[in-house]
Amino acid sequence: MPQKIVKSKIIFEGEIVETIGEVSTEEYERWGANENLKVVGKPVSRIDGYDKVSGSAVYTFDKILQRMVYARTLRSPLPHAKIKRIDISKALKVNGILDVITFQNTEDIDWYWNSSKLFDPHLRYQGDEIACAAAETAELAEQALKLIEVDYDELPFAVNTKKALESDPEKLTGFKKPDLFTYDRGDFSKGISESDESVEDTFTTPVVIHNPTEVHCSTVAWDGGKLTVWDSTQAIFSVRNAVADSLKININDVRVIKKYMGGGFGSKLEAGKYTVMAALLARRLGRPVKIYLDRREMNLAVGNRPDSHQTLKVWGKRDGTITAMSYKSFGAVGAYPQGAAANWPFRTMYKCPNIKVEDQNVFINAGRARAFRAPGHVQGVFALDSIIDDFAYKIGMDPIDLRLKNYAEVDQVFNVPYTSKLLKEAYSAGAQAINWDLRNKIPGSGNGVIKRGIGMASQIWWGGGGPPAHAMLKLERGGYLTVISGTQDIGTGTYTILAQVAAEILEIPMEKIEVILGDTGVGPYAPSSGGSQTIASVAPAVRDASEKMKSKLISAAAAIMEIPEDKIKYNNGEIESIEDPAKKLSIADILKELREESLLMNGSREANPDGYTTNSFGAQFADVSVDTETGKITVNKIAAAHDIGRPMNQKTLENQFHGGILQGLSYALMEERVIDESTGQVVNLNMHDYKIPTVKDVPKIEIIIVSKSDDLVNNVGAKGIGEPAIIPTAGAIANAVYNAIGVRIKSLPITPDKVLNAIYKFN
Ligand code: MOS
Q1: Helix (H, G, I), strand (E, B) or coil at 140
Q2: Which CATH number applies to 161-208+304-408?
Q3: What's the chain's average pLDDT?
Q4: In the β-sheet with 254-257, what is the strand arrangement from edge to edge?
Q5: How far is the CA of 339 from the centre of ligand 1 (A)?
Q6: How far is CA 197 from the centre of its chain?
Q7: How far is the CA of 601 from the centre of ligand 1 (A)?
Q8: Burial level of 757, CB count in 10 A (0-12/13-18/19+)?
Q9: pLDDT above 60 for 1
Q10: Which of 76, 284, 541, 694 has the fewest CB atoms inside 10 Å of its own CB, making it the most exposed?
Q11: For a pocket test of ligand 1, which of 11, 265, 368, 534 has the largest count of ligand atoms closer than 8 A to its C-beta?
Q12: Looking at residues 508-533, what average pLDDT do you find?
């Protein structure tokens, strides 16, 4: 039987998830290097590129329906309060207002998450939902919101993570204090007794905001009892389930569609309340509803990368052998339960037999943390690679040599080998690209006002994908192929890469291939666009379906030409007789002869290999200039060398790395959500006050892929790249700044004031 239902494992953003689902049991021959291939791995332009750049692509935000109305949301202005009284009567008198929902008229509507209701009169952060108004225009809806009268019981709040650590979380949010996460390995005190030297320091990172280009939005419409939701989401099936559960309607009465999307970075990995509010208003009004969040709401209420306060200590021998490491951290999850841990890289990146970890999630009265492009790893690597450099300089060792000395040959947490690990290759390729020998052997030893420095940091992530992930193929008259899957293209190029895989195997030109993703009403289940797992999960399913379609075409040709199947071969998109190559049929010929409108085929991802961990690896190197008079840091160059399995498409790969590196640079030097502690108000709620890079901040970027294929991970050899791209950037920049000025800046973002304070010790 070619498909089987089995147990398999997948690591999704640090969580080990056991899956039970249908997998393919076919073992396909590995492709070898990209040089052997015709389409996969080539710099193929996006198949949706023209539609996007011409403006004809209809993004979720662009979706307009007849008789559609607009919904806007009233959010808590206070960090912590209970609603004493709410009166919507004045709001309902606004000309053009159609409906207002609050906790008072939606008591029967659940929120799928945390067994709560859609609206909760207990407001836990500035931004918590109070009401939602629908009107003929968005402006009228906003006008109505201003007329809603709310009396609050103000409650004590905490927005400072360190102070909140000492407070009673139940008083702040009603949620119990999260358990302390602990992890131990080996014999810690023995490790310390074996050491000659140690370094210890505390590193802090700020809360930062995802800020995808496209704001969170949904357009919803009912047709009888059937609901269609156009949603800007990274996970159509999660949205479908959340909406159906909240409204208590059948799963198959909800169809979620996401065609084009302007980014998400993790903030669109979960369903949002706004989607359910829109569906509810649309049902009450009998009209389609569009709901969106503006930039202010985006900065408050769709998640963030939690902060971290990480204290690390490293003990080792003078020859560089690390003998023990300890890690203690806490971070703010916001006002609702979520994870903020940043300790994964610490546990797994460098070889160390004796380690101790403590990590505490802290509730504060601010917007909730959410998965954000390599959750935990970006914070964790900044701290880990900073302290590793400190140890290297302390014992007078080249930082790369120290990393090589403590190279983890096997996964230390699960004690199993990696499907592949080419980190050594990444170190040497990156070092060469950045001119590693030009770094200051003694940090800060350069002359002049502008000091130059070079630093690096390592990357580890999962992104090997896994089942369940399915794809369907439909081959039609004329030899046109449609690839259908229930994953979505968050903007990374999934449409294009899946078409490339089918084109490679079936030898059908790219122009004849259409890919339909992001529609729960059409596609078989495939995973969310998260965890850098999309291609590693879905591309193998497309390969499976394509290989099986190929067999089907051979059997069709055998029937048509009356030649036994074993005397037929597939050659360059044609099916020919081995004995008489003149006897052949094109795919179009077969479809014509068949008197069938289409040939169908399903394919599935195979199970993950037993006894291995799949990780991607890499290292980024930064070359920076620091102006010691102004504190301004210029990143001159980032060299990124990575083992990410097979590069599936050189163009989309470079897009991902450029985006990740810029977002990492931004994290290192600019971004920070700032809250006024006395009022609990976020003070930088727009793109003017909340800094991100402009084109003038973009460094030279060199990308070197040291891998060719990871033959154990899946049948196409690919691992994800979206998250690896951002992981080491901030750590590399921080180490380069240290190398330039000889003083370590331990808190991100590394802003000019911190640089000047570090150099001149103003305070
Ligand atoms: Mo997730 S943070 O969207 O990979």
Answers
A1: helix
A2: 3.30.365.10
A3: 96
A4: 97-101, 129-135, 69-75, 289-292, 217-223, 226-231, 254-257
A5: 13
A6: 38
A7: 30
A8: middle
A9: no
A10: 694
A11: 265
A12: 97
Residue 3 confidence (pLDDT) above 90:
no
Distance between CA atoms of residues 291 and 69, nearest Å? 9
pLDDT for 763 equals 65
Domain 63-155+213-263+268-301 falls in which CATH fold? Aldehyde Oxidoreductase; domain 4 (3.30.365)
CATH architecture of 3-60+465-604: 2-Layer Sandwich (3.30)
Cα of 331 vs centre of ligand 1, distance in Å, is 19
CA of 714 to the centre of ligand 1 (A): 21
Report whether pLDDT(34) > 90: yes
Identical topology for domains 63-155+213-263+268-301 and 420-464+608-763: yes
Under DSSP, the state recorded for 347 is: H
Output the CA 595–ligand 1 centroid distance in Å.
45
Pocket-testing residue among 10, 11, 12, 13, ligand 1, by greatest number of atoms within 8 A of Cβ: 13
CA-CA distance, 67 to 80, in Å (whole number)? 38
Q: Are strands 97-101 and 116-117 parallel, antiparallel or unpaired?
A: unpaired
Confidence at residue 386, expressed as pLDDT on a 0 to 100 scale:
98
**CB of 238 within 8 A of CB of 270?**
yes
Q: Is the CB of residue 575 less than 8 Å from the CB of residue 554?
A: yes
**Token pair in block for residue 700:** 């030279």
Nearest CA to ligand 1 atom 3: 266
Q: Which atom of ligand 1 is nearest to the CA of 528?
A: 3
- Please report, in angstroms and rounded to a whole number, the separation of the first and last CA atoms in the chain: 71
Percent of the residues in the chain that have a pLDDT greater than 70, as a whole number = 99
**Which protein residues are within 6 Å of ligand 1, measured from CB?**
234, 264-266, 269, 371-373, 375, 530-532, 723
Distance 723 CA to ligand 1 centre (A): 7
CATH architecture for residues 420-464+608-763: 2-Layer Sandwich (3.30)
pLDDT above 90 for 9: no
Domain ranges of the chain: 3-60+465-604, 63-155+213-263+268-301, 161-208+304-408, 420-464+608-763
Spatial distance between the Cα atoms of 722 and 152, rounded to a whole number of angstroms: 43
Q: Is the pTM here over 0.90, yes or no?
A: yes
Which pLDDT belongs to residue 112?
80
Q: Which of 267, 723, 726, 727 to mutate to test the pocket of ligand 1 (most atoms within 8 A of CB)?
A: 723
Which residues are CB-contacts of 574 (< 8 A; sequence separation ≥ 6)?
A: 584, 585, 586, 587
SS3 139: helix
